[in-house]
Amino acid sequence: MNGPPASLRDRVLETAANRPSATRTTHRQRRLALMILILALLVASSSMLAANHAEMPARPIAYLVTMVSTSFVLAIAAAYSMLAPTSSALGRSSRFYSGLMIIAPFALAIAALLANFVAPSTWIMPEGVRAPHISCSTITLVTGAGLLVVLMFLERYSATNSVVLKGASLGVVAAAWATLFISISCPFTHPMHVIPTHILLPVVPLVLGGAVAGARVLAMRANRMK
Fold it and tell me: What is the pTM assigned to this prediction?
């Protein structure tokens, strides 16, 4: 049986050279660019949302800086820990995913309390004003759900030894970024509003949603590897 003509082989090799496959570095750069874009959109949209609460008393600058900076660092750390390449072909261990799901919400809650301790006046709820518990939880949940979709898209071809735990951990990462969003926009500072509605309540459905999505989206890659 004769092989393909030399001209055809040359054209195939030329096409392959002109359109090389994306390397791990390229994938990391794409992920980083997308996360920066998401951060810019979150900051811009949350700032616009905060402008709608201009009638509320301004939050102490110490509280605002502490809350936003710690939430930002935690969101970046959570995202990097999930999206950064690992030495194992199967990605992070199940123990890592479980630890992230436990540590991240508590770290966000501690960051919120730290901001309250830095600015003691924030322990007092403004009189005559009802905190928007439901609306804040809804906004945080919707924001986190959108981010979870993006994270699932980024990780749809990644390998993992536990699709459910990885999906749930991506839900925690989405919740951390959503907490950053609401921390910039919500003018209420009392911990009885911030911790339940900005952190704990959105985390639960996002973790469950991430687990279900992981079992469907990430499992496709896992099944192809078998």
Answer: 0.79
Contacts of 208 (CB under 8 A, 6+ apart): 168, 171
pLDDT per residue as tens digits for the range 56-78: 677 899 998 999 899 989 998 99
Distance from C-alpha of 122 to C-alpha of 118, rounded to nearest angstrom: 9
Amino acid at 163: V
Q: Are 111 and 67 in contact (CB under 8 A)?
A: yes
Report d(CA 7, CA 27) in Å as an integer: 33
Would you tell me the crossing angle of helices 163-185 and 94-118 to the nearest 10 degrees? 10
Confidence category of residue 82, pLDDT binned at 50, 70, 90:
confident
pLDDT tens digits, 32-50: 777 777 777 777 776 666 6
Task: Give the whole-angstrom CA distance, residue 58 versus residue 204.
Answer: 30
Helices (H) and strands (E) in the chain, counts: 9, 0
Token readout for 215 is 């079992």
Report how far residue 215's alpha carbon sits from residue 164's, in angstroms, rounded to the nearest whole number. 5
